[in-house]
Prior knowledge:
two-stranded antiparallel sheet
Amino acid sequence: xxxxxxxxxxxxxxxxxxxxxRLMRRTGRADVTAMPFGIDTPTLFAMVFGVLGxxxxxxxxxxLAWKVGMAATLAIGLAKLGLAFAGDWALxxxxxxxxxxxxxxxxxxxxxxxxxxxxxxxxxxxxxALALLLLALLGRVRMPFGLPGAFVAVLVGTVIFWGRxxxxxxxxxxxxxxxxxxxxxWPTLGWLEALPETxxxxxxxxxxxxxxxxxxxxxxxxxxxxGDEYRARDxxxxxxxxxxxxxxxxGVVQNTPYIGHPAYKAMGARAxxxxxxxxxxGAGAATGVLSLLVAVLPEAAIAPILVFIGLxxxxxxxxxxxxxxxxxxxxxxxxxxxxVVLIESGSxxxxxxxxxxxxxxxxxxxxxxxxxxxxxxxxxAVLWGWALAAIIDHRLVxxxxxxxxxxxxxxxxxxxxxxxxxxxxxxxxxxxxxxxYLAGAYGVVxxxxxxxxxxxxxITA
Length: 461
């Protein structure tokens, strides 16, 4: 699983390095930064808890679970190949407030907020590393010997962590040294045997194809706002092809461009960092070195980099969009906030030895509202931000059309799925009455926008 998944990262990073070099040659600029690339974290959790885990529990067969994971990953990649050709069109028609706002919400609430919790669990390591990073990258304070700020922050945090542990003054990690062995990813057709068992899980897996395509479009716009204009189709086809390759070679998690291009640019990254990343991840996964690296670097020392990325992308969401669209950017944060609360509340309930299904009364209704608002949060954020930007610009017919799209999306669970897994469903077989209520509500809002648009035209005439 690990070498196959990492192969997708390696190939995608190599392709993005080449795209950056090509852009550098075309523009004559030396400061071009490659798009960051890796595995998609939401899909990782969805595959573990929604596909691999249930298959393993139901059958007790780990190899079957692996094959189902491969088949689901291949299905995601093939779906993305088709969706990739709409990327350039989406960049032309969707306002920046919706594109940058949706990833800004993810950045501050998922990429910055959750790592901040890890920092505060070990403040001596985390806060010191964060302060060094912010001094270097935002305060423009020169680090000793001209070393990169991110490197100094991680190095100092790691030294504090292990130095304190050696003196017995704080927690320490465990480094398990296992024999290194070569495990090269290799194409296999083993997933064909698991196609019948895979079909029931496609409703969970396939929505994540749409999520990462939207995320890829968002990230392409973010890179353009930072000065590096890539073609959306190239970015999206790369992630789709890398996902297909990973699935064919045993991988069980799809690939995607990462949020953070402007932050990497601010840290001085250019075209070579994706080459280094791909080689380290690819070789490390094939030899087992990655597990050692993860054990050596404490979480609290790495987390500040994510916090910085979250701050940079969130700031860009407001600064690179027209000021009048500020409210639209802010609105995109709301579904993401629900997803964050859902993640944390789920963890707390699990720690207490209970499940969401055990909640009753107002607590149950509140948790279900979080599920509905949090599921499909990226698409919800884009639709809400786009619709509000259209309302601000007095394009009320367009706003009505977007709410009509939201109504159709709610009917199949593409947004606001009431299922804990976030899975899709047929509109004639909803899991509860909620999709119908939401679709109806969006329909009423669409009609209100159209009526308001008609009234405005009459007044203008």
